[in-house]
User: What shape does this take?
Amino acid sequence: MSQIQSSLEAPPNLIASNVNVFEGDLLLTCSYSPEISPESFRRLAEGRRAFSFCPELTHLDKLGFKLCTIFRLGRVTSLWVLTKDGSPHSMQIPLMVQEAAEDVGMDKANIRYFCLEKGELYEIHDLTVRKARHYSEIEKLLPFSRLAAVTTILRGEDGCPNDRAETFESVADHFREEAEEVAQAVASGDVENLQEELGDLLYNIYLMSEIAREKDLFDVGAVTRHAADKMVDMHPQVFDGRSYKW
Assistant: This one.
């Protein structure tokens, strides 16, 4: 009997399932994601054999061992993972999937990660899952996410009237002013002032990106990704054929 999920029903437990049933395109979900967002679950489960895992009831080591066995059999074409963002238990599932895939040499290009946050479905990159293993790496990202949040708040309904009134054109004027103040700080050798002025310049980058996001044009993430991709493409002598830790 086919195990492809065509309607909302409790997916079979991955740990309790015989390894011989794991083949083709699969979906692994935490036990409560289907209840949190049935629509997202149905969408991801379409055409896939769905299985669940409950980290509160079963030790994660068992999941890791089972996944290694499944991947070694070589019958899985692709695996999608659905979890609830912010759950200390659920967030361990992608980590175990990634580790098992790396241990047995499964092509991670065939694995995709999704999470539910406040009813919305987000796709998570493999690199994001890896970053979740290293608190020190996440700590380095927090100042940027805080500035993004501050900018969104200032542009919000209860934010600052001046920031809410900004436009592409007005922020472009700020760029010119702040760039000149950066140049003056460099010329004077005032390091403390240079840091402050660079911060003002950076805020205006976030501000213009937030205005663009509100218009559904792009966001600050797209800006930074494009900048990094552009620099990599412009320097093949540095990046081609080499592996760097991002």
